[in-house]
Write a structure and sequence with these properties.
Elements: H1 6-13, H2 23-31, H3 36-43, H4 50-56, H5 62-74, E1 78-82, E2 90-94, H6 96-99, H7 102-113, H8 127-137, E3 148-154, E4 157-164, E5 167-172, E6 180-184, H9 186-194, H10 199-204, E7 208-212, H11 214-220, H12 235-246, H13 255-266
Helix pairs in contact: 7-8
Length: 267
C-alpha cells in the first residue's frame, strides 16, 4: 500500500482522517486535534517532562495530554527519551521535523493576534507562549542599531535574548553577565509588554524586578508591537469587538499575575 495514501494515514494514526491528498489536510491529520499544536509550542525551546507540560497547559487533562503525546510520537513529531544521570527523568522532545512547526506556530500566533474578537483582558499565558510571542512580534526595524543582552527570569525558567545589529537571538539558558535582567511571572511581564501595565508600577508592586541597563530595558519593552487588528466584516464579529473594547484594559497588575504571585507565596 502507498504509505502516503489516506487509508494508510488513517490506520497509522489510529484516528479519523480528512482523506484528502492535500499536504495541508495531512498536516491537520497530524496536528489538528485540540491541544496538539499547543503541546508542540511548549516544546519548541527544548525538552520537558510530563509535569512541565501540564504546568504550561493547565487546561488540559492528564489523559488528553497523554493521548496527544502518544499521537505526536507516533507521527514522528516528537520523541520520548530518558535523560542521563543525575537527572534520569523521562522527557519529551521535538524531532528535527517536528521543530519545523515553529514558524507555523509563529505565523498562526501573529494571525490570531489580529482577530477583532480577541478579548482586551487577556487570559493567563504560559511562560513558553510568552517567550514565543517575543520571537513572533519582534520588529527588526524598531531594534535597528540595538546591541545588548537581556536575561529573562520567568518563574523558574530562564531565557537569554541577545540583540546584535537589530537581530534577535533567543534561547533557553542564562548569560554569565547580562546587560539587563527582567524577572517576573509570565502574566505580569505580558502585561508590561502588551497590556499597558507600566514598568514603574509593576516594579513598585513587586510584580517585576528590573536590573541593569535602564535604557536597554526601555527599548526592549518596545520591540514587540502587536499587528493591526483585522477589519470587522460580520455583525457577530462587530459585537464581539465592541464587547472586547468595552472591557477594562490591563492598566493595572493582571489578575493572573496576582493569583500566581499569591500561589507562589503560599508555596
Amino acid at each position: 500500500m502507498d504509505r502516503r495514501s489516506p487509508c494508510y494515514t488513517k490506520r497509522m494514526a489510529g484516528k479519523r482522517s480528512y482523506e484528502d491528498a492535500c499536504g495541508a489536510a495531512h498536516a491537520l491529520d497530524l496536528v489538528g486535534e485540540r491541544w496538539a499544536l499547543l503541546v508542540v509550542r511548549e516544546l519548541v525551546f527544548g525538552p520537558k517532562r510530563f509535569t512541565d507540560l501540564r504546568a504550561g497547559l493547565p487546561g488540559i487533562s492528564p489523559n488528553v495530554l497523554t493521548q496527544r503525546l502518544e499521537e505526536l510520537e507516533q507521527a514522528s513529531i516528537l520523541r520520548r527519551h530518558k535523560l542521563p544521570p543525575p537527572a534520569a527523568a523521562w522527557v519529551y522532545e521535538l524531532t528535527d521535523w517536528g521543530l519545523e512547526l515553529e514558524p507555523v506556530i509563529m505565523a498562526l500566533g501573529r494571525w490570531g493576534s489580529r482577530s477583532p474578537a480577541r478579548p482586551a483582558q487577556m487570559p493567563p499565558i504560559s511562560t513558553d507562549s510568552l517567550v514565543m510571542s517575543f520571537k513572533t512580534m519582534f520588529d527588526p526595524a524598531v531594534a535597528a542599531g540595538l546591541d545588548g543582552r537581556v536575561q529573562l527570569v520567568i518563574g523558574e525558567s530562564r531565557f537569554r535574548l541577545e540583540f546584535k545589529r537589530g537581530k534577535l537571538e533567543l534561547q533557553r539558558g542564562s548569560f554569565d553577565t547580562p546587560d539587563a535582567t527582567l524577572e517576573a511571572l509570565p502574566d505580569a511581564l505580558a502585561g508590561v509588554v502588551y497590556g499597558g501595565y507600566k514598568l514603574a508600577d509593576a516594579v513598585r508592586a513587586g510584580d517585576v524586578r528590573a536590573d541593569g541597563d535602564k535604557q536597554l530595558i526601555k527599548r526592549f519593552l518596545g520591540l514587540f508591537p502587536l499587528p493591526p487588528t483585522a477589519p470587522v466584516t460580520s455583525s457577530a464579529a462587530l459585537a464581539a469587538a465592541q464587547a472586547s473594547s468595552a472591557a477594562p484594559t490591563r492598566s493595572a497588575a493582571p489578575a493572573g499575575a496576582r493569583a500566581a504571585k499569591a500561589a507562589a507565596t503560599e508555596r
